[in-house]
Amino acid sequence: MEQLMSILIGILVAGSVYLMLARSLMRFLFGLILLSNAANLAIFVSGRMTSGAPPLVPDGLDTPVGVVANALPQALVLTAIVIGFGLFAFALILAVRAYRSLGTLNTDEMRVAEPKEQG
After folding, report:
1. DSSP letter at 67?
2. Which pTM value belongs to this model?
3. Does residue 36 contact residue 80 with C-beta atoms inside 8 Å?
4. CATH no. for residue 43?
């Protein structure tokens, strides 16, 4: 199962790099989100995908009984999802503001501070 997930992570990273190399700001944002999802999936898979029980400790014991799932990658991914959503919302607002100010989402046409090329 880990091999299949590794291939899926590779496909997600390749797709995100392709989108981030585009000239459109919206494609860049979608690539950024796709890359964030690939990183979250990599963190989740690093905790070993087991069909174990939830990591609950019964009363009177110090450790869980039997094979349990690793809760740390799940907590890290949950935190990363929230942070990624906040980053996406902020970047989307910046893109909307740039579109309203400049009238385009093409990054080549957004070069307001740079002098025009002579040619």
Report:
1. S
2. 0.77
3. yes
4. 1.10.287.3510
Q: Which of 12, 16, 13, 40 is nearest to 29 (CA)?
A: 16
pLDDT one digit per residue (tens) for the chain, 119 residues: 788 999 999 999 999 999 999 989 999 999 999 999 999 999 888 877 667 677 788 888 888 877 777 788 888 999 999 999 999 999 999 999 989 988 888 888 887 767 777 76
The number of folded domains in the chain is 1
Rounded to an integer, what distance in angstroms lies between the CA atom of residue 79 and that of residue 47?
15
In a domain, 75, yes or no: yes
- What letter does residue 60 receive in the DSSP assignment? T
Give the phi and the psi of residue 23 in degrees, each rounded to 5: -85, -10
| Containing structural domain, residue 8 | 2-49+70-107
- In this structure, is residue 112 part of a structural domain? no
Residue 63 structure tokens: 């450790």
Q: At what angle do helices 2-20 and 25-46 cross, to 10 degrees?
A: 160
Specify if 43 maps to a domain.
Answer: yes
